[in-house]
Amino acid sequence: MSTRSAVVVGGGFAGLTSAYYLRRAGWQVRLIEASGLVGGRVATVRRQGYTMDTGATQISTGYTEYLALCAELGLSQEIVASSQAIGFIRHGRIHVIDARRPITAGFTPLLSWSAKLSTLKTLKDYRSLRPSIDVRDVSAHYAKDTMSAKTYAEKRLNREVYDALIDPLLRAYVMNRASNVSVLEWFSTLGNLAGRNMISINGGNDRLPLALANGLDLRLSTSAQSVRKIDRGVEIVIRTASGAQDVLTADTCVLATRLPEALAIYPPARELAGSLTQTLTYNRGLCIDVGYRLRPRNLAIGLLLGAVEHQQIGLIWAQHNKNPDRVPAGHSLFTVYFDEAINDQYFNAGDESLVDIASTYVERLFPELGGQRDLSHVTRWPLAIPNPAPGYYRQIHEMKARIDPADRLQLAGDYFTCVGQNSAIYYGKQSAERLIRHHGQSR
């Protein structure tokens, strides 16, 4: 029996997971990654005693695939509980809700009593989904993908619920306003929250991707120029950091990149992706970390706010409430995320002006932090998160129906369901399982 081989293109969670499971099955695997680091948009920067998760930041007990990998790699003991308090900002005031006791939301002044009663309608709509929504395959409910979350709120609920609840939650999940997002993403967000506890991994979010990469045949700073199928295999043209070109061959290949890169590398994927190629856009990630020598008393892990509250800032994450090991003792660290709707104006602005906007608002919320800032860091992700516009999940459903599970070239990435670390791991594992099932036999 000869050893089967695969080349995995892309060193984010989808590619690393695919490579890990193929290697575990005894395959010869080479992974190529255009940047000099593995992890993709799961990145960690360490400075001045701060540990900044500058990409994907939070995990929960609903991340079953993530936690299963942690168990396999001996990292389970590094998973710890985060604060379960969520703060919604309304008229400049922080309303804290204990996510472990959702009933407390019924007593918060965040919403009027009429608005609270209105939310019962959206809970009814969510529970009416059959089968129950699975965030690993939101497109299974493609028939509901008919309007934006804002249009849904206007038709079914009211503007207060939209401004105070729906828009803040969706801005937090996809960094875009609910007017630009499918109503199905709203139901997906409820599914992500239902019965989940916030958790984190000690030492930084890059620990799991680094553990997955350990022992792999990695080719960093190496980009795939093209991929084509050849007789009984796949040929991948690569370019190294020095500019040298080479050709790799293998029995199979996994393209674990964002969709635009996959289409550029392998043009036949356009037929598979269909109309998704024309409508899929990516929200940019503009994230500003500000650290302080003082820690406010507020225990909220996330501070959520709608566009009516702040046009530029869409979310603030309190990293010290996620995990105290992210900051020096007694310090605090806030990650401030900008809204995609204003990124044309701000994405390429100078770091100093961005830090000023972020720190000014944080210090307005917590005046005691004034004069205490001792760290700032700006991160820009040109292609951060797929934007789930109305129709997005319908097109994903159509794409999935065209996938040939026996194809020796499989796709994986962030565009198969709602964005998230767990989703990327799930679809990376699926691509590996398909190759093993259909191409794992001896030649």
Structural commentary:
This protein is of the alpha/beta class. It folds into two domains: 5-41 and 206-277 and 402-439, FAD/NAD(P)-binding domain, CATH 3.50.50.60; 58-62 and 70-203 and 282-386, Alpha-Beta Complex (Polyamine Oxidase, Chain A, domain 2). The chain has 15 helices and 20 strands. It has helices spanning 13-24, 64-72, 113-127, 149-156, 159-174, 183-193, 207-213, 259-265, 269-273, 276-279, 319-322, 343-346, 351-365, 392-402, 421-439; strands at 5-9, 28-32, 44-47, 50-53, 59-60, 79-81, 85-90, 93-98, 198-201, 217-219, 223-230, 233-239, 245-250, 252-255, 282-292, 302-304, 313-318, 332-338, 373-386, 409-411. It has a seven-stranded mixed β-sheet, with helices on both faces. α1 (13-24) links the parallel β1 (5-9) and β2 (28-32). The chain is globular. The chain starts with a strand and ends with a helix. The model has no long low-confidence stretch (mean pLDDT 95).
